[in-house]
Amino acid sequence: MSTVADRRTWTTWALSRLDAEATRCGETPLLQFPLPVDWGIDLYLKDESKQPTGSLKHRLARALFMYALCNGRLEPGRRVIEASSGSTAVSEAYFAQLLGLPFVAVMPRGTSRAKIDRIVAYGGTCHLVDDPRTIYAESERLALETGGLYLDQFTYAERASDWTGPLNIAAGVLDQLSKERHPVPRWVSIGAGTGGTSATFGRYLRLAGYDTAVCVADPEGSAYACAWETGDLTTTATGSRIEGIGRPRVEASFIPELVDSVVRVPDGASIAAMRFLSVQLGQPVGGSTGTALWAALEKITAMRAAEERGSVVAIICDAGDRYLDTYYNDAWVASQGIDLAPYTGRLSEFATPARG
User: What is the pLDDT of residue 290?
Assistant: First the structure.
């Protein structure tokens, strides 16, 4: 576009497209997991797999595009670039296509084939790297060389995500719980990738005056648990095998002051819980959902021991069909040296259906 007025006109049009898309989507379901009634504890699952692009990252992608537009960083034809393990890139490819913008996802080579195929289906391009730690620098390089915009979810997630308005995920959950027997949850369990969702919940719960604690479920190989426990935000780690959550470094969007607890979750527990929940719900869920569920069940166990009643919420981050070749594949699990047996036995305690 040749003039400021033309760019403003396009930005107004683009924002209206995003607003219309959000209005069409509506709110995702809040499912109840069947715990025994006499426990006095209710477990709910916010099903973000029902977003148009199939994951919690749909909210983040929309927010990042709106943030870039409102800051004057996007214009017609400008290439959009993102560093991602997959789900954010899928959602961003969708929004880039909606706005007629070219999109490139910089991802680890081990990203699931299903995610890569979805990105391509939305018109995006995948730029794969061998070392997951290089996705940041490679995204910056591509943006510089092509004149593109690196959206940088890991820096901007917490500031781009709306946490005051009625459409944020925390407000949605609290509204959906309003008619339940324990309308104010004791815990919300979230797997942290960027840290944007834990920041949204932490801020909104304070704003609304709710006495609800935020638990971050952290998988093996992630830096967040150690950093939160020690206060050292320069902590690094090897990186997570659970796609979408856990990071080899503490990302700028992770705000430790908004987190009340961090539960370390072994990969075997994440995958066993993912499979367990898929059977209980009759729908496949992803690995990060298993991580969040395991942490939620740890909190429920502690509540029962303390004879505490209340509700707990965990997030279904995405559907399991993206992981049929990995987390649902016994041969792949065995090749990774992951043993599910110790965790499968513990999960059986929660398999009793509710009565009454």
Answer: 98
